[in-house]
Amino acid sequence: MKKNEFLALLHRYNSGDTNIEEHKKLLNYYESFQTNAEWDEVLGSKEEIESRMLLRIQQSLKVEKVKEIQLKPFYSRTIFKLTAAASIVLFISIAALFKTNEIAKGNMPTGFPKAETISIGSDKATLTLEDGSAVALEKGKNYSKGNVKSNGEKLVYGAKSESATIADNILTIPRGGQFFVQLADSTKVWLNSESQLKYPVAFTDGKIRQVELIYGEAYFEVSPSTKHKGAKFKVKTQMQNVEVIGTEFNIKAYKNENEIYTTLVKGKVAIDNTKAKEILKPSEQSVIKKNGSDILISKVDVDNEISWRKGLFVFKGMPLKEIAKVLSRWYDTDIVFANPELGNVKFNGVLNKNQKLEEILTTIRNSNFINAYEIRDKTITIK
Description:
By secondary structure, the protein is α+β, with helices and mostly antiparallel strands. Helices cover 23% and strands 33% of the residues.
């Protein structure tokens, strides 16, 4: 792309007149200048390009009359798939890139922490064995006992051995963690931060395979019943039972939230809360409120609901106080608001789970709706 062509295209982008194909061109440019040392010779000075891009970012982050801030990706959502999350370039990442340059120059923006930093979440968990002993699982630590092995990043149960007994294990994921476990029937489970799963170390063919999501969020890819003499798979939670034949679905049942969400990706599940029973179809989500009897079902964007498993957090018209809950779990921190009204500001956006929390907070601060943030003793105060 020639310099004049790019600058003209960027000007149109700033005016909101570009289409999807033109967004792709801009994306290609952005990806290339990160790796091509000669980009400035063709497209102009780095400061010139950054100033134009930053202008667009600042414009997109302005609060509308409805107080909804748009944290949009650099290119149209219709041209990317969450399955290729690693290659996604996000608007929020671009803003963070520019801020990095300012920090390197010593121009620390107001509200950016100088001393305390928050760690990014990682693969870690605690395995509680049938005798009550606990094993810490984390990268770099191997574990093996009976029919279970771990390399510190995942836990895999083998088929039942002659010496194996049908006992239960509990896998606990702390705030700031995530983990993967493959059960003895080959069912795969991805566990989000602040979650706990109870399950047997082995299953008996022909008998119901039941696990319990004690709390938290988990994505299940269930081994079909046809491979286990027709044995159905059930997931128990505090307020419901999910009966599965062979499918993929997500359950969110956090302790401090008033609803349980079950989202079906493919297959078929039956939701039962003892007062009602409903069948979910792909792309449908059920919601059960605590102390309620109804099972509410609606169509949802599945990619958004399961984005956490693919390394992303997707927010659509979500209040900042709800986003704060998600960030708190992943970064193992507490987020409070000096003014409770700030928590009601709504955002649309995509966040990469591998980003530093400080980058995300700085981008939110640049929306010009909050004044600053402060980090002290792993508590973040948004002002």
